[in-house]
Amino acid sequence: MKKVECILRPGKLEEVKDALSQFGVKGMTVYQVMGCGLQGGRKEVYRGTELTINLLPKIKIEIVVADKDADEIVKIITKTANTGQIGDGKIFISPVENVVRIRTGEMDESAI
């Protein structure tokens, strides 16, 4: 199994969620996060003082999937979240040793 974590623009959440749902992803965890990278930040003026805000709002999605589905899910996220501009985000894939569904005790892929 693999854990797919992606950081993306907040405005792309619904599109990515819908595309993953069409593929058959049944569960995901979504976080509102702040981050910085190549996109840098923005400058704002507050009470006459210029402030540099380098942490921008982003969305983080975590999904645990079967090994055979990981590559296709990465393709779906990449295609759906891509605007072609700096700040589109990143995808991280890592191995998952075990999954347990608390309610039923199911383990591994049957628990996903």
UniProtKB/TrEMBL annotation:
Signal peptide: none annotated. PROSITE patterns: PII_GLNB_CTER, PII_GLNB_DOM. GO terms for biological process: regulation of nitrogen utilization. One of its GO terms (cellular component) is cytosol. It holds the Pfam family P-II. One of its GO terms (molecular function) is ATP binding. Gene3D superfamilies: 3.30.70.120. InterPro entries: N-reg_PII (IPR002187), N-reg_PII-like_a/b (IPR011322), N-reg_PII/ATP_PRibTrfase_C (IPR015867), N-reg_PII_CS (IPR017918). Belongs to the P(II) protein family. This is Nitrogen regulatory protein P-II. It comes from Desulfocucumis palustris.
